[in-house]
Amino acid sequence: MTSQEIRQKFLDYFKSKDHLIVPSAPIVLKDDPTLMFSNSGMTQFKDFFLGYKTPTAPRIADTQKCLRVSGKHNDLDDVGRDTYHHTMFEMLGNWSFGDYFKKDAIAFAWELLTEVFGVPKENLYVTIFEGDASENLERDQDAYDFWKSHISEDRIINGNKKDNFWEMGESGPCGPCSEIHIDLRTPEEKAKVSGLDLVNNDHPQVVEVWNLVFMEFNRKADKSLEKLPQQHVDTGMGFERLCMALQGKSSNYDTDVFTPLIAKVEEISGKKYTGILEDEKDIAIRVVVDHIRAVSFAIADGQLPSNGGAGYVIRRILRRAISYSYRFLDMKEPFLYELVAVLKDQMGAFFPELEKQGNLVTEVIKSEEDSFLKTIENGLIRVEKLIEQTIADGSKVLPSEEVFELYDTYGFPDDLTRIIAEEKGLTIDEAGFKVEMEKQKLRSKADSAQKVYDWVTLETKPENFVGYDQIESETYITRYRKVENKDGEFYQVVLSSSPFYPEGGGQVGDKGVLENATESFEVLETKKENGLIISLINGLPKDAGAVFYAKANATDRKNSQANHSVTHLLHEALREVLGTHVEQKGSYVGPDYLRFDFSHFNKMTEEELALVEEKVNHKIKESIALQEFRSIPIQEALDKGAMALFGEKYGDSVRMIQFGSSKELCGGTHVKNTIEIGHFKITSEGSAAAGIRRIEAISGDKSEEYFKNLENQIHELSQLLKSKDVVRSIEKLMEENASLKSEVEALKKEKAKGEIGEWKNAYEQKGNKQLLVKKTSLDAGSVKDIVFQLKKEIPTSVTIILSDADGKPMITVGVSDDLAADYQAGAIVKDLAKEIQGGGGGNPGFATAGGKNLDGLENAYQKALNI
């Protein structure tokens, strides 16, 4: 059975059991403050379990893209080292929301595995929760009794709380679980050791394949447990492990989930994969084929590599793959991007985002490879210098602070530093490096540390967002909870009628005030969590049950919604001017400005930018009224031509915003008419990432301020120039400046001529050769002219000039033609450039290098004297 057939058979089975089959949610989570990525199949159903939303069906099944690389669930360091851990993996799952429970969940799992997939019953073991006295939790006797009707009792194993009590996180829905383990060993191995002794003992051929979670509790912030109003089932089966079992393999990497990718790596690298666990080459190949899947899906779902948050995690995964291929596959040029096409062929039919975003994914990965390979090359220079200094200090251990700086500041892999050090007979200060890493983690943890208490419920009133229609409302606090962080003590509140827009869809959350007759509190931010609109206030009311009045900041809201509406008009204009390949890839909408990222591979021309501005402002002046479809079936919205963004998770009913021909699915706040936007002005256009351009712009009040500032600047220039014709006056100044520059250049040449005579007499005789090492403040052009003249006029000479012109270090080397066989200008300048933390090059007769460390010129001078 192929992996595609296995996936389809799973879904068909549960469809026959009256389950609604739903697509995978995006792997990147944009509106969940507790998680960056979907790390389990149940992530997209959290609101159902918590009771914040009504399930779309009582029974659901799917395959979910998951990523486990941070937080509680982090498998990154295990990837490549064994046969079954992955960063990105598929989790096949079936769910019951208050419908069937343990009996049917167990029966479905057994029937599918043994009868549909044909797994031999004698290869299976199951675990149940043994109970936990500290939490007054009894043994899961019901699960035991139901399993007895399917499997012999000696194959039912008691499991502790760690293995058999599943929790979503520090708080939230949880419950006992029952794992199904499969023994894939040979009959000879099974005869020697019983599978019973190997379950949950990290044996590579006795692995958990399916986990049935019986959600019946809610873990509160104070760690106590309370019963959920309904009982739910949440199951997760590792797709890759299932393929390993059904295809008769001993490693996930030997299945057709990975073999096409491995074959491509073999073809490009010329290295043969043997599947040996300890072989560094094979580990590298496993890392590469695993990580390319994680990175590709994340980018396709809208998460670009970056230096912070989820983007940093994706960049880290990709750089780990590049580092392994550089060190163990001898791949010094970009190649990972070539694997995207193979991945598309494998999985594009089931995950259409790979097909749709394939070109973007390819370009982004290639760009990241180019960048990081340069980082490695520059890092190698720094490592060599560090090694030289360490040896000069009479030590054999590289200091931890410098190794950590290479890793943390310059992105150079610490394990690559270890390898280079070992080749030179050195080591790194491992204990010190761990201390530095721990310091960094503690700093990061301190910055993000937050203690969140349990909700205190006051009212059972409905909790509604009224901000589309009004920015002020009479309201009640329905629930509140205390929050403590590095800035102090605050309170999060949920309101019965909230006019505060929660951060989402690129738009910032509303600020404002919450007040009554005696008290007033500042609303510092508004966010959405598990379906609840939560506003953060700077204190707890004395009477939290009183009637309050909520007011959003009117000016900020007005400007934010003008900027949000204009992003829709901008999106449409970009597609008209550049082509329909343009798609939104991210945005920021605030009261001061807007940022819009979109797919496009070239820098926009001035003409294109002007045309986009013209089109948007034309739509603004047309005074187009907003047409809002507040709740419309998603298919109907798409049929009307609405733009849906890849990487977003939409429900069955959506909100569609229309301004004339511009139609988008959007939850943000908007102007009632485009004329309210005022004027649109692009302030910058640049690259956000490979294949992604970024426009920053302003509208409304900020646009007025922009043109007022321009008017003031022109007035000030007119006063300075004592002329109303500012353009002609500046042209005249430029002409005068050009004339003065010519005079300065002539003076420089005269000065250089004077220097030549002095420098000719400054050469030192070194045997039968001559060396000049000279410091100067002459500019680079003058130095170049002099060096070329000297290397022609002075035979058997090496000329080295160190310049500090304009406060920047520059080294210039010239070698006379008759010494070309013995001395290379490029090699000399490369060696000396280490002292100024720079690099450069040229040809055997002439080379230059610039750097960052001006103080290093003295070291370079002393070093040059020894040539």
From TrEMBL:
Name the cofactor(s).
Answer: Zn(2+)
Q: Which GO terms describe its biological process?
A: alanyl-tRNA aminoacylation
GO MF annotations, alphabetized: alanine-tRNA ligase activity; aminoacyl-tRNA deacylase activity; ATP binding; tRNA binding; zinc ion binding
Q: Give compartment(s).
A: Cytoplasm
Q: Which Gene3D superfamilies has this protein been placed in?
A: 2.40.30.130, 3.10.310.40, 3.30.54.20, Bira Bifunctional Protein, Domain 2, Threonyl-trna Synthetase, Chain A, domain 2
Q: Principal place where this protein is found?
A: cytoplasm
Keyword list, A-Z: Aminoacyl-tRNA synthetase, ATP-binding, Coiled coil, Cytoplasm, Ligase, Metal-binding, Nucleotide-binding, Protein biosynthesis, RNA-binding, tRNA-binding, Zinc
> Recorded E.C. number(s)?
6.1.1.7
Co-factor binding comment: Binds 1 zinc ion per subunit.
Q: Which family does the UniProt entry place this protein in?
A: Belongs to the class-II aminoacyl-tRNA synthetase family.
Report the function annotation for this chain: Catalyzes the attachment of alanine to tRNA(Ala) in a two-step reaction: alanine is first activated by ATP to form Ala-AMP and then transferred to the acceptor end of tRNA(Ala). Also edits incorrectly charged Ser-tRNA(Ala) and Gly-tRNA(Ala) via its editing domain.
What is the official name of this protein in its record? Alanine--tRNA ligase
| Protein species of origin | Chryseobacterium carnipullorum
